[in-house]
Structures are given as structure tokens and as C-alpha cells.
Specification:
By secondary structure, the chain is an alpha/beta fold. It has 16 helices and 17 strands. The chain starts with a helix and ends in an 8-residue tail after the last helix. InterPro entries: Folylpolyglutamate_synth, Folylpolyglutamate_synth_CS, Mur-like_cat_sf, Mur_ligase_C, Mur_ligase_C_dom_sf, Mur_ligase_cen.
Length: about 450
């Protein structure tokens, strides 16, 4: 008679999807992030290179890449295509990151694929390249799912961190998107915007067209030079294509798109903020390239339907009406500038109360310079994550900036984010607006708690 261990090994190491997910996610604290593609190349080779069977749209950028991915997926679905998406971080469940037509990878499929990968991961871990990381295994899992189970027509493929050495860079896409370049992950990607741009430009492939909204000129030139070196046609916002804003109000913006192939009038989106017009224009230019060069069928009525129907949780998302609570995953200076512009131009309120929580590695001074002039109350908390920033240190930075800027803001430190959320809610009266911002690890917890009264799994 076989022992229980022998039966378990025959069936696969993991007996449930949650066991498999715990094994993957647990590698984050143990191994962290290890940029490089050696382990990914080995993984793909041993899995039979399923990544070679699919049409990828590879999307990188400091801000806006998630929204751009959402626009692309929504429109392509509206056109009748099956669309896979791989995005990060996820807001509620680990499976949110791997979807086809908006539906998460099924638990039984995830379990089967992870059990298929586990011996290969162990085999690679024993070599000189070392054990694959959480993000590498997640990337491989997505590729396995799309390439061996779901077979989508297109895969909208978001980078995790940077580009050149990001595990998603294992693919050869049919089109490349770089939304913008800003101050983020500079401890890993480089201490100047030019170095960050060079890392993101690392996803550009020979002869594959590139769409970008990168500015200013010094940063754009890094993308331009890489594209020229790779003989990749570059389509830049403000040059080869542009947009003209027609109307902007809460939950509805319209614009005209002008591109190298044709103008497209009367396009609308429901996501808020001027930046979303740029993200939508980048998505439309990408779709125009697919239509022009890859015979993708994009009818104008489907384009409009897909744009209007695009949702992107956690970004300028109103999650409560009484009181009004807006959540936004702005966590770097550029994201804060975008949030500040939306708070000034889109939303009305008597008083503005903000709750923030950051990771320890972010540019907090640049973020706070944009936010402090707008708020009446700043509640500083800590995300439930191992790389969380210290709330007291963030409060010290804010206090110093308030003196420098000659501003008066009520600063409250509450390390427990649930207690901080209660404070925020209690302070927000009928005509006020509450905003929760900062790391998406905090945003995911707050969103899950307000929407479902449950904690999120959240994470990379």
C-alpha cells in the first residue's frame, strides 16, 4: 500500500490552488526581486517555449501602463477577440493578474499548471542561476496558461518593474508600448530619469513598432535612439499622433484622435483625469498600428464601445458615496501631480481629507509637494506589507515641507490602516472629499475592506 506522501507526490506537490499560490507568493519575502532573464530563458526552454505561440502587446511605463492595458483589452474584446491580460500588482486576489476576457485563471487550472512547473523550478533552483523568483514563476504561469490552455488571440502584457531585465521581456511582441518615464523604482532602475528610460526602452525589439507618450525631450531621446538602433518605427504623442480634448466632466471625457493613418472624431472615456485622455490616445494609436499592419479588425463602433466600457479599479475610483471616498494608487511625484490636477479640476469639495501609506523606497518629498497644498487633513498610515514606509518618518518629512511651504495642515499618524480609515471616514462630512492614496498595497486593502469587508491577498 502506498503511503500518503507517495499518493501526494503522484497527484502533484500541491493539493489546492491556495497551496500553490502560497508557495509562489511566499518566495517574495524569501527571494525578493532578482532582475535578469537567465532563469526565465531556462524556464521557457524546459516548458517547451509556449511564449512563441502568441501575439503579445508589451506595455511598460512608470505611470499609466495599467490603464493603457485596460483600454487595449476592453477594445479588443469589444471587437470580438479573446484577450489575455497579465498585470501587476493585483488588488484583490492573486488570480486577478492572469485573465482572459476579464475572467481570472481558474483555480483548478492554476493548480495543474503550478504542479507541472514545480519540478522544473526545483531543477533550475539547483543550478548556478539560482531559484526562480515569485514574479518569474507568475510570468511563466501566465505564459503556460495562455499558450497551453486558453489560446487568446492577443495578450496584453504589462511589465512588472522596468523592462530590460524584467521577466516579461522574455517575449517577442507584435507591438511595444512605453507610456511614460518618471521617478519610480530608482533604487533598482537607476538614479536618473535617463537611466530609467533606458531600462524601459529595453523592451523594444528589432523591427517591432513602438508607441509612446514619453516626455520631455531628453527622456524621449533615449526611447528614440533605442528605436532607431533596433529599426523599430516610433509613434510619439505630440508628433506622429495627438489628441484634441472636446469635453471633460466627471465620469465623462471626449476627444478627437489624430494619427498618421486617419483622424477619429468623437471618442469618449469614463475614466477621470486629463492623464486618461493621454492613456486612451496611446491605446488608440496602438490599435491603429495593429489595424494597419496586422489586419486586426477594429470597427469605429467597437472602438468607441471598448473605450467607454473601460474600467480600472484603484485609480481615481470612488468607492463610497457616504462619505465620498476616492482611492488612487499615486505613489510617486508624477502620479501625485496627476492626482493633484484631478482633485483641482474634476472634483468639488469643501474640505479635503487624505490618507496615505507608502513603501520605504519611494520619493516621498516629491509626492508630498504636490499633495500638501490641497489637503486640510493628512492621515499617515502604514501598508500591511513587509516593505512599508515608517509613518513617523513620513510625518517628519511632511512637517518639514509644511514649514518650508508656509502651509497649515492637520497631520495625524495612525500606523494601523483600518484605524486610519475610521479616522478618515469620521472626519469627512457631507460636502467633503476623502482620498486614500499611496502604495497599491494599501489601496488594495482599503478597496477590499470598503467594497467586500474582507482583507485582500494583494501583492506583486
Amino acid at each position: 500500500m502506498r503511503t500518503m506522501d507517495e499518493i501526494k507526490n503522484t497527484a502533484g506537490e500541491f493539493q489546492s490552488a491556495q497551496e500553490a499560490i502560497d508557495w509562489i507568493v511566499g518566495r517574495m519575502e524569501k527571494l525578493g526581486m532578482k532582475p535578469g532573464l537567465q532563469r526565465m530563458h531556462l524556464l521557457m526552454e524546459k516548458l517547451g517555449n509556449p511564449e512563441r505561440r502568441m501575439k503579445f502587446i508589451h506595455v511598460a511605463g512608470t505611470n499609466g501602463k495599467g490603464s493603457t492595458c485596460a483600454y487595449l483589452a476592453s477594445v479588443l474584446q469589444a471587437c470580438g477577440y479573446d484577450v489575455g491580460t497579465f498585470t501587476s500588482p493585483y488588488l484583490v486576489r492573486y488570480t486577478n493578474r492572469i485573465q482572459v476576457n476579464g475572467a481570472d485563471i481558474e483555480d483548478d487550472v492554476l493548480l495543474r499548471l503550478v504542479n507541472e512547473m514545480k519540478p522544473i523550478v526545483d531543477e533550475i533552483a539547483a543550478t548556478e542561476v539560482g531559484p526562480p523568483t515569485m514574479f518569474e514563476i507568475s510570468t511563466a504561469l501566465a505564459i503556460l496558461y495562455f499558450g497551453k490552455v486558453a489560446y487568446p488571440d492577443y495578450v496584453v502584457w504589462e511589465t512588472g518593474l522596468g523592462g530590460r531585465l524584467d521577466s516579461t521581456n522574455i517575449v517577442n511582441p507584435i507591438v511595444t508600448v512605453i507610456t511614460n518615464v518618471g521617478h519610480d523604482h530608482m533604487d533598482i532602475l537607476g538614479d536618473t530619469l535617463e537611466l530609467v528610460a533606458a531600462e524601459k526602452a529595453g523592451i523594444i525589439k528589432a523591427g517591432v513598432p513602438v508607441i509612446t507618450a514619453v516626455e520631455p525631450a531628453a527622456i524621449w531621446s533615449v526611447i528614440d535612439q533605442t528605436a532607431k538602433a533596433k529599426k523599430a518605427t516610433l509613434y510619439s504623442l505630440g508628433d506622429q499622433f495627438n489628441l484634441t480634448e472636446v469635453n471633460s466632466e466627471l465620469d465623462h471625457q471626449s476627444f478627437q484622435f489624430n494619427g498618421p493613418f486617419r483622424p477619429i472624431p468623437n471618442l469618449s472615456i469614463t475614466l477621470n483625469g486629463e492623464h486618461q485622455l493621454k492613456n486612451a490616445a496611446v491605446a488608440v494609436m496602438t490599435l491603429e498600428v495593429l489595424r494597419q499592419y496586422y489586419a486586426t479588425i477594429v470597427e469605429d463602433v467597437d472602438l468607441q464601445k471598448g473605450l467607454v466600457g473601460t474600467k480600472w479599479p484603484g485609480r481615481l475610483e470612488m468607492v463610497s458615496q457616504e462619505p465620498r471616498i476616492l482611492i488612487d494608487g499615486a505613489h510617486n511625484p508624477e502620479g501625485a501631480a496627476t492626482l493633484a490636477a484631478a482633485l483641482q479640476n474634476v472634483y468639488s469639495y469643501k474640505k479635503l481629507h487624505m490618507m496615505i501609506g507608502m513603501l520605504a523606497t519611494k520619493n516621498h518629498t516629491g509626492y508630498l509637494r504636490h499633495i500638501l497644498p490641497l489637503v486640510d487633513t493628512l492621515i499617515i498610515t502604514e501598508a500591511n506589507f513587509h516593505k512599508k514606509g515608517d509613518a513617523s518618518l513620513l510625518a517628519d518629512i511632511a512637517s518639514g515641507l509644511l514649514q518650508e511651504m508656509n502651509l497649515e495642515v492637520d497631520i495625524v499618524v495612525e500606523r494601523d490602516w483600518k484605524q486610519a480609515l475610521t479616522l478618515l471616514t469620521n472626519r469627512t462630512e457631507q460636502d467633503d472629499l476623502a482620498v486614500v492614496s499611496g502604495t497599491l498595497y494599501l489601496i488594495s486593502d482599503v478597496r477590499s475592506w470598503i467594497t467586500y469587508q474582507t482583507d485582500s491577498e494583494k501583492g506583486w
